[in-house]
Amino acid sequence: MYLLSIHFENARKNGEGRFCVEKTHGKIRKWTLLPSGPAQRELLQLMALACGGADFLARLPCELQRFCRLPDRPLHLEFMIARHAPRDARISTPPVFGSGLEIKGQAKAIKREHCRLLPPNLPIRRPCLGNGNAKYILLGYGPVLRPHQNTDHFDFRDPFHRITRFHSLFSPLARITDPVAFLTRLHYKGVMVSRFPAQQAIRRLSALFKEHLNIDTDLWLEKRCNFEREWSQLRLWKQRAALLVLDAVRHMIDASPKYGTPLEQPGVMLLDRPDLICTKKIFPQWIMLMDRLLPSMQFVLTLSRKARQDFASSVQRKRLPLPAAAQPAAKKKQTRLRPGTILLIDVDGRLPNLALMKLSRHFKEQGCRVKLARKNCQINGTDVVYASCVFSCSVSSRRVGELRRYYGESLIVGGSGVDIRGRLPREIESLPPDYSLYPELGDRAIGFITRGCPYRCPFCIVPIKEGKTRQVADLRELLQDGQKKLILLDDNILSHPRAAEFLEDMARRDVKVNFTQTLDIRLLKQETSRLLRRIRCANTNFSRTVYYFSLNDTRHLDRVRRKYKLMSFSPKDNVEFVCMYGYDTTLAEDAERFRFLRFLPGAYVFVQRYQPIPGAPAPSLAKFFDDKADELIDELIRIVFPQNMKSMEKYYRWVSQLYAITFEKLHMGLVDTIFRYNNRHDKGRYIASVAGTRKE
C-alpha cells in the first residue's frame, strides 16, 4: 500500500484542505518531508486515521472527537491509495482506488455516493483489512518511544493488534516492541532454527546496525547470544535509535507470514520528528539505515528546518514505482464440443474416478469421442453428459444443482453422492478402465480386487452400496498394462477369506500398493501381517512408504495393540491411523484413542470429521463433554505426534468451537495450541469472536 493523497474537512488544526504526494511518470517520492509543528503532526495523524481502518480506530489511545474542529460536525476524510496485488487485493482489482470515513465520536466508512472530494472516475472501495495484520501495512511513530519491559506479547491474542503499529503517533504513553524479547525471538528463529524470513531479517539488521550506528553485532549471529546483556551494554543514544528500527522490523515480519522477504514488502511509515530520536550527528546515518532496511517503504515525516536542510539529497531523490494495473486476461474462447462427443464430469473426486474411466472405455469402443471435465464445468454443444458425484456434502450438492440447471435433461448423474444404490450396467462394470482419461495416473493402476464389508457400521455407506465382501477382479486384471504401482480401492480386503492369497500375489509381483481406504487392523493374522511387511505399501503418489489403518472408537484397543505388534513396526515407519470424530465418541474416548496411538511406534493420526450420508444417524454429541472437560483438553494438547499435527489442528478447532458453544467461553490452552504454528495473525479475531460463535 502507498498513500497518494488525503482530503479533509473539519480537522481541528488543519480545517479543510488536501495533501498530495508528489507523483511523476508512475512513481512517487519514497521520502516526503514536512515541516514540524502541531498542524503537520495532525496531518500525519489524519493519514494514520485514513489508512488505519475504521474498525480499529476505536482502540486508539486517544479520543477521536479531539480531531473535530466543530464538535457538531464530523471529521470528513477522503483518501487515495495504491494497493499491491496479491498482498493487499486480488490481481484483477484496480491498483489505485479511493475511500473515505467520517469521525464523530466513532469512525465509520462512508459510502461511494458521499465521496465528493476525490476524482469523479476513481473507483471507490472500502479497504478490506481482514484481521488487520497482513494487508495495507501502516507504521507510525511519535517522537517519544516507550518500549515494553517484559510485558510484550507476540501471539496476536489482541484482535486490535494493528493499532500497536502506529499508536505511538497518538500518545507518548503507548508502548512499542520490547527490544530484548524481540531480538531473542528473532535470534531463535533466524539463527537457531534457520527460518528463512527471520534469518534474512537478523542478517540485514546486524549489518546495518554495525555500519550506520556503530553497534557491535558480532555475537548476534552466533548460536549463543545473551541479548539482555547485549542491549544493556549499548549507550542510551544507540538504544533510542534502535528502538524504532526494531519495532518496524517486528511488525513487517508479523505482517508477512507468507513472504520470505518481509523487509522488502511495501507499506507506509509516518514519522513525527524522528530527528529527536537520534543525535544531530547520527540522524543522517539513521535515515540511510531506514532507507536500506525497508527499500519499498513510503516514508512521510515531519522534521525541523535544520534536519530538512541537512537531509541527504541522494535519499530525497529516490522514487517508488506505483503498482501497475493488471493486464486484462485474454478472453477465453468458449469451449464447444464437436458433435457426437460424450462429456464426462468428475464433480468432486480426489482420486481418478473409476466409473468414469469405465464409461470412457465403453463409449470409445462404440466409436464415440470422450472429453473429461471437472467440478461444475459448463460446455456448449453437448448432447449427452454423464457426471459422477462421490460425496454428499454441500459443495458437491451445489455443483450438481448447477450442472442440472445448465444441462437439463442431457445430464445423467450417478455416484455415491447422489445415489447410494446406483451401479453401472454389468457389461460396463466388467470393462477395463480407460487410463487415457486421467493421464496424471502415469504408471499407476487403480481398481478393486474386492468390494464390500461384513460389518454394518451405521455411519458407513459400504454395507448399503456394496453389501458383503466379494471378489470382483484379480491382480492380473488390474495390472494388465504392466504397472508396478496400484491404488487399491477395496473397502475391507482383509475380511475376504482369500485375503492372504491376494497379498501373496502382490508381494510375489513386487507391486507397490496404496491401500487408500485403509486396512482393518483387527483382522490381521500372523500370515497377512508378514505379507504386508513384504509389500511396499505407499501413499497415493508413491513418494514414501505408508501403512494405512483406521481407528474410529475405543472398543477394541487391546486387540489393536496385539495386532499392531504382529507388524513389528519401529519409530522409523510411517503408520497412519484414520480417526473419525464428531460421530458418537466422547472427548474422553477421543483422548484415550490419541493417547493409545501415541505410544505405538511409528503411528500418527489423520482425523476426519463425520459426514452423514443420506439416511445415516445424526451425530450424537450431547455427552461429548463431561465434568472433566478442562482436564481432558489439557491432556489432549499434550499428546503430540511426530508428524501430521496439521491434521490434528482441525480436530482442535472443532473441539474449541463445540466447547465455546457448550460453555460460552474459550479454553485458552487449546486456543494457544491451535495458533502455535499456523495462522498466528488470526488469533485475536478468533478470541474476539469466541471461536466464531459470536459476532465481533
Q: How would you describe this structure in keywords?
A:
696 residues, Rossmann fold, 21 helices, alpha/beta, five-stranded antiparallel beta sheet, four-stranded parallel beta sheet
Q: Flag low-confidence runs.
A: none
First and last CA, distance: 26 Å
Shape: elongated
| Beta-strand residue fraction | 15-25%
Q: What would you say about this model in short?
A:
The chain has 696 residues and is α/β, with parallel strands linked by helices. It contains 21 helices and 27 strands.
Q: Could you characterize what this model shows?
A:
With about 700 residues, this protein is of the alpha/beta class. Among the domains are: about 1-320, Rossmann fold, CATH 3.40.50; about 340-425, Probable inorganic polyphosphate/atp-NAD kinase, domain 1 (Rossmann fold, 3-Layer(aba) Sandwich), CATH 3.40.50.10330. It is about 30% helix and about 20% strand. The chain contains 21 helices and 27 strands. The strands form eight sheets. It has a five-stranded antiparallel sheet with strand order 2-1-6-7-8, with helices on one face. A four-stranded parallel sheet has the order 5-13-12-9, sandwiched between helices. Strands 16-15-17-18 form a four-stranded parallel sheet, with helices on both faces. Strand 7 (about 95-105) and strand 8 form a beta hairpin. Helix 3 packs antiparallel against helix 6 (about 285-295) and helix 17 packs parallel to helix 18 (about 630-635). The radius of gyration is 32 Å and the shape is elongated. The model has no long low-confidence stretch (mean pLDDT about 95).
